[in-house]
Amino acid sequence: MGKLAARRGESLTLQMKETLIDLRAWRQFVAVAEELHFGRAARRLHMTQPPVTQAIAQLEKTLGVKLFDRTQRRVALTAAGEALLPDVRDMLARAQALPLRARAAAAGEVGRVRLAFVSTIGFERLPVWVREFRLQCPQVALELVEATGDVQLEALARGEIDAGLMLHSPGFAPPGLERLAVAAEPLVLALPETHSLARIERPALSDVLAEPLIIFPRRIVPSLHDAIYGLYHAAGRVPTVAQEAIQMQTIVNLVWGGVGVAWVPESVMQFRRAGVVYRTAEELAPASTAGLSRKASSSQPLPACETSLIWPGDVRNPALGRFVEFVRSATGVAT
C-alpha cells in the first residue's frame, strides 16, 4: 500500500509540474521549432542563447520526452516535438486572446442566455428578436426552450434558465422578479368553421358563453384563467369546461375538432389552422339582456393579456443584461 501511494504521489507531482509549465517556455519551444536554430530563436525572442537552451532542456526534463534532436550542424524536431507543435501554437493563440475575451464577457458580448418562452410570443416576435440579437451579439448563444408560466417559475427558482417570456393578465406578472412588458394583446374567440355561430356576422356574446369551453389549466396562467372566468361570471354564467389543454396550438386543434370554443391571445391567429375562425371583440354583439340583472347585462369588455420578459433581480450574467437591453430597445420600452 505504501509503494502504491508513493507512485500515485509521484504521478500527481508530475501532472502538477506539467500543468505549471510557464507560457514563456512554450513560446521559446515554438521559436526554436520554427527557426530550427537556437541562436536565431534567441534573437527573435530578444534574448541571449543560453537562457533559451536552458529553458528547452528544462521543458524536456519536465515532460520526460525529448523535443529536439541536436547536433553541431542541425536542430530537428523529434516525433514528440512535431506532435506538440500545433497544439502549443493553438494554446498560445488562445492565451493571447484571453484578455479580450474576458473584457467581452464582462460586457455581455460573449456568453450564454437560457431563455424560456410561451408559444404565443414564438409566433412572430421571438423569431425576429433571435435573428436581430444574433446579428448584434454573434458570440452570445441563445438557448431556447418552450415552457408554460408555471414551468418557467420553477426553472428560474432552480437556476435552470436565465429569463422567461411569460403570459399573464395586465399587471399580474409574478412578484419578486424583474419584469419588462414586451407585448399586450386582446383575447379573441376561436370557434369551428362549421359551428352555427361562425356563420353569423356578429354572434352574441351571451350565445358564445353558453358554448362548451376549451381552456388551459389554471396553474399555467392563473391571472388569465381567472380573467376568462370573470367574463362568464359577469354575465351571470359558469363556464362549461369541455376540455383543458396546455399548449395554445392544442387548444386551437381541439376547437377545429368541434370540442368547444376557446378564448386565445390575438397572436394565436398567426397559427392558421384551416377549419378554425376567429372573432375579435368588435365582431361580437353585446350579451343579450334577457333574464340577466342590470349589472350582468352591461357590456363586458373581453379580457386582455400581456407578455413580459422576467428574470431574477440579481443578474450575474452580463450576457443576460445585454439581452434585456436589446429587448428593451426592440420594444421601445423606456429605461
Give a quick set of tags describing it.
335 residues, alpha/beta, Arc Repressor Mutant, subunit A, D-Maltodextrin-Binding Protein, domain 2, 3 domains, nine-stranded mixed sheet, two-stranded antiparallel sheet, 11 strands, rod-shaped
Question: How would you describe this protein?
Answer:
Helix content is 44%, strand content 19%. The protein is α/β, with parallel strands linked by helices. The chain folds into 3 domains: 11-98, Winged helix-like DNA-binding domain superfamily/Winged helix DNA-binding domain (Arc Repressor Mutant, subunit A, Orthogonal Bundle); 111-177 and 310-331, D-Maltodextrin-Binding Protein, domain 2; 183-306, 3-Layer(aba) Sandwich (D-Maltodextrin-Binding Protein, domain 2). The strands form 2 sheets. Strands 3, 4, 5, 6, 7, 8, 9, 10 and 11 form a 9-stranded mixed sheet that branches. A two-stranded antiparallel ribbon has the order 1-2. Helix 2 (23-35) crosses helix 3 (38-44) and helix 2 crosses helix 5 (79-106). The longest helix is centred in the N-terminal third of the chain and has 28 residues, at 79-106. Residues 12-18 and 289-298 have low confidence and may be disordered.
